[in-house]
Write a structure and sequence with these properties.
The complex is a heterodimer of chains A (217) and B (247). Chain A has nine helices and no strands. The mean pLDDT of chain A is 93. Chain A is 81% helix and 0% strand. Chain A has one domain: MetI-like fold (Orthogonal Bundle). In chain A, helix 3 packs across helix 5, helix 5 crosses helix 7 and helix 6 packs antiparallel against helix 7. Helices cover 38% and strands 25% of the residues of chain B. Chain B has a six-stranded mixed sheet, sandwiched between helices. A four-stranded antiparallel sheet of chain B has the order 2-1-4-5, covered by helices on one side. The longest helix of chain B is centred in the C-terminal third of the chain and has 16 residues. Chain B starts with a strand and ends with a helix. The model of chain B has no long low-confidence stretch (mean pLDDT 94).
Chain lengths: 217, 247
Amino acid sequence: MFTLDNLLFLLQGVPNTLAISFLSFALGFALGIPTALLKQLSPYRLGIIAEGYEKIMRGVPVLVFMLLFNFGLAGIIPIFKSAFFSAVFALGLRSGAFQSQIFRGSINAVGRDQMMAAISLGMSRGQAFRHIILPQAFIVALPGLGSEIALLIKDSSYAFVLGVLELTKYSDIVRKATRSFIFPYLAAALIYILITFPIANYLDRWGSRLKTRYGLR
Amino acid sequence: MDEVVLACEGLKKRYGDLLVLKGIDFEIEKGQTKVIIGPSGSGKSTFLRVIGLLEPPTEGKIFFEGKDVYASNMDLNMLRAKIGFVFQEPSLFRHLTALGNVKIGPKVVLKMSDGEAERKALDVLRTVRLEEWSHHYPAQLSGGQQQRVGIARALAMDPDIILFDEPTASLDIELTWEVIDVMKELAKRGVTMLVVTHELGFAREVADEILFMDDGRIIESGPPEELLRNPKTQRAKEFLSRLLGGV
């Protein structure tokens, strides 16, 4: 039987699920903006690095990276001895590629006229990006970033394979202990929805509110 | 001798196979207002962007206060800071209030302190009669108000010249007047201005010279009364009769 106690037990997986998701999102943010700028600003040759990074991350399953880091590279890079951080880095690297694409799209949406106006005041391209383009691009990017967080929360469940005690792992533990084959997973599914929906929805609404105020497309 | 602020020699601009500017010689002195007219596609906007240093010329030289701007020792950003630019679409920074739009140039480029930049910004917003709108975002302003903020944004840099690229072309007629009035006032105060516009009333009242552009060249120029009344070239004649005759 699946009981309230089981549910409470299951909830103990939530902190790790959230920690993996938000740390990998932060890593992805830190990688995504420079990657987007590298492709946008730099001469051709450096742009290729950004492009290659994005292509690799789009083509390789995130689980393969988790396994590679945790089992393959742990001997060389100490932080990968931790299953938790292997998951964070695998998800964060992929998120960096995805966020780069989100930012690039929103930078383009801001429009050439804004760059032209900034340049006409005597700003360097760097100053224009920092003060004019990026603040607007960030607003345009909010809904996309919301979807990206939701994706990370869901894909943090891959960390289960490495034995990280996150939500999916807990639901599996409950399944084994209670021999209830449906409810632990359904409960986990519901919890995932309850976490992802408000976050994505909030960023979506925040984004459209700011867009209306600033008259952004 | 009067001081030449901005000048060019043999200016050409090519986009791919298309030669848009076909060799332009031009100069404007301190305190002068010059107006450029001409049919669309004649290269007026391109000329303004190139001489305003927003795009490099394909050929020819540009001189700012006598110095060749594309010589290797020139800091283009600092030169651009001295050349104001008002665009056809106001192109205000949408995430900043009117005050923020005007303040950011002095702050970021001229390295003024926040308080100093704010005083400067409020001062020029008063000049364009928008001090009461300083805390509104561009999306909350009318087209005419936006364009006046655009003018204030250029003025706040204390530029040596301001270039206007059809500043009223996308405005309704009543909104056109409020912008034109501000521009007339600036001209009378002695601000050096190069203006692409078809507001001939403005040209007649404040321009020292009108330049008629067609097909990538300045084909005729002269004082407003003379050029508007007795254009010498056939093309200027046709253009003016169409501009004055048919709406």
